[in-house]
Each structure stands twice: as structure tokens, then as C-alpha cells.
Amino acid sequence: MIALASLRERWRSLLGTLLTLAVAVAVLTVCGLLLVSARPVAPDRYAASPVLIRPVPPAAPEAFTEPRPWPKEQAEALAVRLAAVPGVSAAVPVHRFYAQVLRSGSPVAGERDAYNWSAAALGGHVLAAGRAPAGSGEVVLGNALGVPVGARGELLTAAGPEQFTVTGTVAGAGIWVADEVARARGGGVPLIGLLTSADADADSDDDSAAAGVAAAATAVVGADGVVLAGDARGAAEPVGDARTRWIGMQVLSALSALGLFVSVFIVASTFAFATRQRERELGLLRLLGALPRQVRRWVLGEVVLLGLFGGAVGAPVGLLAAGPVARWLVRTGFEPASFIVLYQPGVPVAAMAAGVLVALVGAWAAARRAARVGPLAALRTAALDDRPVTLLRLLAGGATLAAAVAAGVAATRASGADLGTYALYAAMALVTAGSLLAPVLLPPAVRLLTAPFARGRGATVLLVRQHVATAARRSAAAAAPVLLCVAFTVLIGGMVQTTTAYYGLNRVTAANAAAVVVPDGTPGLSDAAVGAAGGRSALPTTLYDGVEPLPAAGITPAEHVLLTVSVGSLTALHRPWAAGRPDVAGPAEQAGPGVGSALPAGSGPERSAGPVVPVAVAEGFAASAGWVTGSTHPVFGPDGRPITLEVVAVLAGRPLPAGILLDRAAVRAMDPSALTTVVYSGQPVPESALAGTGARPLSAAAYAASGQDEDDRLVWVFTALLIAVSAGFGLLAVVNTMLMSTTGRAGDLRVLKLSGATRGQVLGLLAAETAVVVVTGAALGLAVAVAALAALARGLSAQLGVAVPMVIPWGTLAATVGVCLVLAVAAAMLPALGSGRATGPPASV
């Protein structure tokens, strides 16, 4: 009851803390609901198939690579056995290849794959008009594409634009061709769908019937695949959707972690400041006989009540916001279109509990300090901080500073995603260290900042200096949220711009060309686009060591000028294959001739020698995998057929398109749907030469500076989210701290007025002191961000081998400091405007 009465009396001073906790609980509720909802969903194209069979996936699903497909012959033999399972009416192997409808020469967004017509039944699709496709050049389209029966148009395939005639339409979206066409154009088989008989297990429900079919299918499939039924069919979602969902989970996890850190930081600094202002009140309690544990229990009781109030406000807000946020994540590309929110009642309860825990963690040190306040010491009315920093606080600040240095050193030596992680850890440790050591750092920093103005005749500078020096804890509490706000907004924005500069330099180094051709509305470049562009390129694909993916790429002799041979020779890279391999027969539309017809069907995961394929491997890959020139390695091709790789060269230097390089024609024969990522040309490419191919030209400089691709867009949206969370929490704390600070100094302001200062002079002094504290806190925050960014830039420079500039987002810095300054001054002025009407003795002298 005492804690509740105390909260009623001080609700204005703790309003900002309450809002901070409410926002934190709302953010945790939203992120928690979205995280538990982020589960794979079976694609609509398989909605009518209760049981799906897919090849064995890789051990590391975050590789976002399709499982090694079955060779066509093996899949068809397996489908025959599955069709004999009781309750199965049909077992349909899925054949697919890249295809995109062209309209007025531009690719239509949406469907990017064509399937065999028999697979349409797996999604419950039936003809709405027309007839099924019967031969080459005939397609059935979903009516969502808006192309009527009988219309002629163009499909963009891996070979290039091709004419087609629409023979039928179905409801929804999709592209289907005749079974024999899809079989010839596709590579391996990625999935087999089962359709069950209408009278199968008539006495049981659909789920139990599917479970019975799945159990029987598992016995048939054995080690050759994985049987999926029920919710497990979500594992068949496209790799692109899985990658998008993974990105969304990283975003939500980062927002949750940042929200927790910032809210704990702000609550800790706010309660430490509030407890410091209440030392006289606490001393009276001690004088009346209160024990230290009773004082501590009282302070923590207030905190628990505040956390519960914040949770009661934040949890409903989070529940209401989850739906709109989920739809926004889908629109921005952080979640696949199949994403929906699952409202779990445990999530808001857990978020409320986390809010109370955050409040307790943040206020624990303040409660301990309050319990140690002696009665006589607390009753002193002077505002002088005789011990602005305790030994424990000094040691903690030194420890976090050492941790920040260690994280910064680790960042300079890390690679990949670890670089940014260590830089963020360094910033968090530096922010914590800066907050702990602020009472020591702030007075000399203020003296340095105000030195150019100290020769004036007025007393404002002197008073500002003295107020900061005599009330170092109060000033540090006001500067801490500014430090946090500036540090994280500058760091996050700078990390994105610095890494963008890195990738730009990496692109320029790799290009070494006058022009670049990139996809325009397509997932990659067709052979027709590559031929029109000329220049150098690589055709990416995936080989498989058992079921584990091995990134590879096909090249021509033109790309040899970009390669540095460490051991061996590239002359053998493009020789005809051994083991009776016929010469590669040409484009994908002839798929069937070439490699595919010469490879054995295979009967499972066992490896056979297969044709011998000469390859060159990157030095790093060779060292890690133990591959040397002359060695042979049995693997599986992208079509699921066994082959044997013979290492003819080891390549030094970087960058390389993949760890394994082989003949481009070999890749095309095994992977008819492979698409080129980019083409580097020695001369400008006219746009007219690329018309209708889903490609556009860029200069090398424009490509290096390009921030328009999908990954860059997602990164910038992610950056805006992180900045909004960190800045939003920080600004709440700035306003709250300034309100509390000015309210606690009402007596000081009255003394100034009694000493002859005018109302304008008092407000001017208050504004000047607030501005100095904000600018000093911003300077410390900038120093934190610069230190972390310097470590990041150094690590990137070591990776690339050229100097990567550290980019400071000056615009973001100016905007953040400006907003902090305006809000802080306004929050400081608001209580002071009414101080002249207040009565009573001064609080301090």
C-alpha cells in the first residue's frame, strides 16, 4: 500500500518510465506473436495433396538450398511404387523449370516457374476454360495473369523469350505445360505428391487417413526421401520463402534484443536518478526506524507495480498491433505471402512478465543504493555530489570498457555476419561504460565544450559549469539517454553505409569492366540476355556432396583473365568429359540430349563414379575440403545424377563466383533452369539489345553504388526499424529525465530568482545547461559509434584487401541531436515555467 501511495504522488515524474515499459512490453508482445507465427506453410500448389515426399534435405537448413533432387528415372520408379500404396489414387512427380510471362517485353511479377500439367491436381486446380496443354508451345495459365484462352504471348525461360499459346485457364495463379515438355526442360525431381482415394479409410477422418498413407509411404520410400503429412508439409515451402522467413526472424529477434537492452538501460538510469532525488525522503524513513531491507522492499515494490501497469498498457497495444505489423512485414518482404499471425495467449503474459523483470533488473542497483542511505547523510540538503562515482561503479565501468575493447578487437578479425555482431556488442558495452563513467567524464567534457565561451562577462557559463560539477550524477543521468540515442542511431546507420561502401568496392573490384548487365524483374539472366550482353559471366549452380550443397558455377574461357592459378592449369577445364560423355548438345530447350541421357539413373543415396567432370577450386575451399590437383571426388549434379569431379587447378585470390568452377556448357546440360546473376562487359551495352530479355545495363560505377536490389532494400528497412526502436526509447528517456530533473530543482530555481535573476535569465540558464548536457552526451555517443564503426571498417578492409572508408551518417546524427535538443529543452522548461508561482523555501543553498 505504501508503494502504491508513493506512485500516486510521483506519477508525473515516473510517467516516462511507465511509457518506456509499456512500449517495451508492446514491442515484445508483437515480436513474440510474430516469432511463434513464423512457421513454414505448405504452398497452395500442393494444397490438395495430403502427403508429400521430398528428397533428404541438407543438415544445415539455413543454407537455403534445395535438397538434392532425384534423377528423373529414380523419381518415376519411386512414384510407381508409391501409387501402389493402399489409399493412394495417384503419385505425381513434380517437374519444374524457370518461366515467366512477358507482357510488352517486360516480365510479369509473380509466377516464376512452370510445372507439368499433371502436378496441377496436387493443388486442386481444374480447368476453368479451354483444354490441357498437349505439346511444345502450349500452356495453361492461372486466370490471375489475365491472359485469355487462345491468346499468344511470350514466356521468358532460361534459354530466352519463347512463343506460347494459351490452351486453358484455371482459377488462381500458375503456369503449366505438357508433362513431357516439363520433364525435358526440368532438371531433377524436387518432390512427389500423393493424391488419396475418395473412399480410403472411410470410417476415419482426413488426418488419420493421411497419417496411415504417410506411414505406408515411409516404408516404401525408406532412406531415399522424407515423407511429409499435416503441418510437416510446410517443409516443402520454396527456398525463397524459407529465406524470407529466416530474415524476418532475424529482424524480430534483433528488435526484441535491442528493445530489451534499451529498456533495461533506460529504466536503470531513470530509477537511479529518481532514487538519488528521493534520498531525503528515504533518510526520513530510516530515521523513523525503517530497516534497509524494508526500504529496498519498498522501492522494488514500486518497481513491480510500475512494471505491471506498463504491461497492462503495453500488452493490449501489442495484440492490436500484431496484425498490421504482420501485413507490413509481408508487404516489405520480411515475411512470405503465406505468413499469418497465430494469437497465442502465453505470449502477452510472457511479455508482461518480461516487463516486470526488466523493471526489476533496471532498478535493482538503485534499490540497493537506497537501502544503504544513512539517516543523517540523507537529511543533508546540499546538492553537492561528494561521491559522484562509487568504487563499484568505477570498477564496473572499467570492466565494460575492457569488454568493449575486446569486442572491437574481435570485430577487426571477424568475417561475414560476425563483423556486425561484434561491432554491435562493442557499442553496447561502450554505451554501458559511458553511462557508468559519465559522472567522471561529464564535468571535464563540459569545461572543454564551454571553454570558447568562458571569457564572456555573463555568469551563465560559470553557473552551467558549477551546476554540472556539483550535481554530476544528475547531469550524467540526463546525458545517458542522449548518449544511447545518438550512439545507436549513428552506429546502425553508419554500419549500413559502411558495409554498402564495402560491397560497392567489392563489386568494382570484381567487375573490372565498363558496363554491367543485371536482371530487371527476373531472378536472373537468361542465355539470350547473356548472349546479347557479351562480356564475362558465371552460371551458378549447386552440386551435392551426399545431401550437403556445394556452391559451384560454370564459366567459359573468356573468364580465365579474372582467375589466378595457384596450382595446375585451366586448359583441361573445358575438355570433353570422360566415361563416354557425348558432347553437350546446346540450349535447354533440347534438354534430354547431352549429359542427362548418358548418366545412370541411380537408385538412392549411394554414389557411383559417373562421368568425370574437370573442375577448378578456390584455394580456401581446397584447403578446408582437402582437395588437391589430380584428386577425384564423387558428388551429385544439380539434376541428382552422380558425377565425379577431377581437380585440374587450384585458384588463388578473390573474389570468385563460387568455390568450384566447371565448364559452363556442363552446368547448362545438368541444370536447364540455371540463370546467370550478372554479366561484366568491356563496353557499354545498349538497352535495345536487351529488349524483352528481362535485363538492364548499368555502368560499372552505377553498379558499384547500386542500392536498388532487394537485399539492399531489406537492409535499409531493417535499419529504419532498429533506429526507430532505439531512438524512440531514447527520446522517451530524454523527456522523462529532464522532467524529473527540473522538477527536483524547483528550490534551486527559486534561489536564483531570490538572488535577483529575472525569469528570462533563469529559463535561459536552464536552457543553456540542458543544451550543454545534451551536446556533451551526443559527443560521447558519437565517440561510441565512431569506435565501433572504426572496428567494423578495419575488419572489412582486411577482408577485401583495400581500404574501406568508415561512413558516418551526418544527416542522421544532426537530426537525432536536433530532436534530442528540442525535446530536452522543452521538457526542462515545462516544470520551470510554473516554478515562479510556487511557494515555499528553497530546496538547497
Please report which band the strand proportion falls in: under 5%, 5-15%, 15-25%, 25-35%, 35-45% or over 45%: 5-15%
What characterizes the major β-sheet?
7 strands, mixed
* Helix content, binned percent: 40-55%
Number of helices: 23
Shape call: elongated
Cα gyration radius (Å): 33 Å
Strands, count: 23
The pLDDT mean sits at: 79
Could you say which structural class the secondary elements and strand pairing correspond to?
Answer: alpha+beta
Q: Which spans of ≥5 residues are poorly predicted at pLDDT below 50?
A: 199-204, 578-607, 836-845
Query: Roughly how many Å apart are the termini?
Result: 34 Å
Keywords: Cell membrane, Membrane, Transmembrane, Transmembrane helix
Main location: membrane
Region (Disordered): 581-606
InterPro entries: ABC3_permease_C (IPR003838), Macrolide_Exporter_MacB (IPR050250)
